Amino acid sequence: MANLVKTLFKAARLARKGRPMSAAFAIGDAIAPPGHAGRKPASIGAKRKTSSSRPPRPEPGSFLSDEFRCAQGSLTYKFYTPHGSARRRMPLVVMLHGCSQTAADFAAGTGMNRLADELGFLVLYPQQSKNANLARCWNWHNPAHQGRSGEPAVIAALTRHAIILGRANPARVYIAGLSAGGAAAAIIGAAYSGIFAAVGVHSGVSHGDIRSISAAMSAMRGDARPRLAGKPRRPLPTIVFHGDQDRVVHPSNAGAFLHQLEQAHPGPLVARSVTGRSDNGRDFTRRIYKSKSGDLLLEDWTVHGSGHGWSGGQGGSYTDPAGPDASRAMMDFFLSVPRRP
Questions:
Q1: Average pLDDT over residues 306-318
Q2: Of 228, 192, 222, nearest in space to 209 by CA
Q3: Which residues are bridge partners to 79 per DSSP?
Q4: Which fold has domain 32-336?
Q5: 112-119 and 326-336 helices cross at what angle (nearest 10)?
Q6: DSSP code, position 209
């Protein structure tokens, strides 16, 4: 108890200094047991346990809320089924919110449901529990939630459940996230490349050797970049968005994704750079990296003048309505990637 009190005082000091994410990390590590994925109280919300029976597919246009439980833990989630045919096997996009956000807030801010109606794909929004992290941050900095354990294992199991629930196309499953959700998406995509075909990271940190709060904060400040031990495997196709005025996660972190791709030695990279301006006046630079044979490997968007928020998003927290539409750009990228074998 004494250690918890000390941690709470430390968190309060960090919050007063304008460092809410640091405060959240400190509190989250103090109150969450290792490997805990966050359990919702039994009296709140409907529960759907995993079983061999196939659940009914949600009606087109429905946005259901539910709780998922598996051997590794539990998570509440929201699941959107777009308007249109109820028989098609559609792509599935898993969206991981940032700190202090909820699934509903993230859905509103990114506008993914509206885009799903237009393009025809399912959207899964896992929601972090305050029991696992007081600020609802995904615990990407904690070794208990890296690789194929902890939160990644629960989200992977929930994704498999969503594929069955929505009759999704298992060869077209993607994962994306903002900030802590972006860092978690990078980890989960690398750990479960057998599920996901591509990854989207907005204002996040690449996966690597981060094993503590101090290492996470150092990376977020831009003091150090995550490194991979040994020769890394070729990463999944990845699209990265970052504002060059981001004061929460330093924009230099975007460069780590290219560095990791180069470390994987995929052969010569064919690079192309495009500049432009969004309809609402934000300049951007878009860099596209392909293999010599033409495979799309990485797309890196720098949004000039933008801070820590979803580019082109509106109606939710942590958005930049003036920026280019990150949601549409990510879906264009995802749908251009070859189907997972």
A1: 96
A2: 228
A3: 64, 124
A4: Rossmann fold (3.40.50)
A5: 40
A6: S
